[in-house]
Specification:
globular, two-stranded antiparallel sheet, alpha/beta, single chain, binds zinc ion, six-stranded parallel β-sheet, 7 helices
């Protein structure tokens, strides 16, 4: 198979992934993947914000580890990126991060719907019992739409993350998706097809077939990501992701070099 680039993978610096970048790269080479990108969880202004991201002081180490993987695997194109948490008010911090290295792209992800609740966090799953799912999905998509409008990101990550634990609102969320996708199209931001959802309770790719189909209709570009937190997860379930993209009419995905985009046939 001809693999699209896998643009979403982590490193041990985020404290919940295993394997050095060079090991992820070796796995990609073994599979026949031609391009990957590291997009580890970005530092926050305070290192104690949570326990699942790299410390700011480790950012140079992160870049060095990715550069090492590039040296070890010259036959593989390896991009340098971050998965950046979008929280309203952190725009200046994100701009500061952007200036520190020559990044190829930023994935903008929403995990937090308040400063204290990351909706995908297994340790905070009890929070879901205290909230109406529709309220959670609404706030989440408000933030995702703001992320798409912020001009800070090339790609929006795992666009329907609130489904992770299989908790869905009774209400129709189509208007929430619509608003987000219009913003992504208008601001020329790509949306990733993230196969990690298949490994969670929701057992489907992020985002759903409905959203991918709507994205195609709105002219939103796509990327592919395994969200690998271990070398064996590189490229995982890409056959399904390619199938999903093609089934709604996608013919190309995007790659990025120093934050400039290019369309590549799937
Ligand atoms: Zn992670
Ligand atoms: Zn994420």
């Amino acid at each position: 198979m001809v693999w699209p680039a896998d643009y979403h993978m982590h490193t041990p610096l985020c404290h919940h992934a295993t394997g050095q970048p060079t090991e992820y790269a070796a796995r990609a080479v073994a599979l026949g993947i031609k391009e990957i990108g590291f997009s580890d969880h970005s530092p926050m202004p305070q290192d104690d914000f949570d326990e699942w991201r790299m410390y700011f002081s480790k950012l140079d180490q992160y870049v060095a580890d990715v550069r090492q993987a590039q040296k070890d695997h010259p036959q593989l194109t390896i991009k340098l990126a971050l998965e950046v948490d979008y929280l309203p008010g952190q725009e200046d911090w994100i701009r500061k991060l952007a200036r520190l290295h020559s990044w190829d792209y930023f994935i903008g992800s929403v995990h937090y719907i308040s400063n204290s609740w990351a909706i995908d966090s297994p340790s905070k799953i009890s929070e879901w019992k205290k909230h109406d799912p529709f309220e959670v999905w609404s706030i989440y998509f408000d933030r995702l739409t703001a992320a798409a409008e912020s001009g800070l990101f090339e790609i929006i990550g795992h666009a329907d993350l609130p489904k992770k634990f299989g908790i869905y609102p009774k209400q129709d969320c189509t208007p929430l998706f619509e608003r987000f996708l219009k913003a992504a199209a208008k601001n020329n931001v790509a949306m990733e097809l993230n196969t990690a959802g298949l490994r969670k309770d929701c057992k489907e790719i992020y985002p759903s077939q409905q959203i991918v189909q709507m994205a195609r209709q709105h002219g939103v570009a796509i990327t592919f990501g395994s969200d690998a937190h271990a070398p064996k997860e590189v490229g995982m379930n890409f056959t399904e992701a390619i199938e999903l993209a093609r089934s709604v009419g996608y013919t190309h995905y995007r790659r990025f070099t120093q934050r400039q985009m290019e369309a590549v046939p799937i």
